[in-house]
Design a protein that fits this description.
By secondary structure, the protein is mainly alpha-helical. Helices cover about 90% and strands about 0% of the residues.
């Protein structure tokens, strides 16, 4: 039974790593590629190590290594992304981030911004009307 679980963990870890490699090859910019690499690294490698730990006589040491990878890899990829983001000039940062956002998300965001502007202008108009009404009441 432990052999089946071990093979399943190793196979699923290999699938995650291969998917990450394909994603790193096909994705457009650094941040997308880093996201794919971080997922393959943080999920795939510990799965492989847990599968090996079930079959090895040094299973506890290998499982401890997998836990360390689960903790360290996301933190390291986050730090690398923050360094890359802050090292870019402002124009390149905004272009690279907006190029990674799908168009339908951008259109929803722009519609929401237009609705907020319209609501703000209506609130301004209604508050101006209320002030006019108060002035009219004060005059009477």
């Amino acid at each position: 039974m432990s052999d089946i679980i071990s093979y399943f963990l190793i196979f699923s870890g290999l699938v995650m790593v291969v998917t990450a490699v394909i994603g790193c090859n096909n994705l457009p910019d650094y941040f997308c590629k880093m996201h794919a690499a971080a997922l393959g690294d943080a999920v795939g490698c510990p799965l492989i190590l847990f599968g090996i730990a079930l079959r090895s006589e040094h299973g506890l040491k290998i499982a401890l290594l997998a836990v360390i990878l689960l903790i360290v890899n996301p933190v390291a990829s986050y730090i690398l992304n923050r360094i890359a983001l802050h090292s870019l000039p402002f124009e390149e940062t905004s272009l690279s981030l907006s190029s990674t956002i799908p168009n339908h998300v951008l259109s929803v965001h722009s519609c929401a911004s237009e609705l907020k502007l319209k609501a703000a202008s209506q609130n301004t108009l209604s508050s101006a009307r209320i002030e006019d009404q108060r002035k009219d009441q004060d005059d009477v």
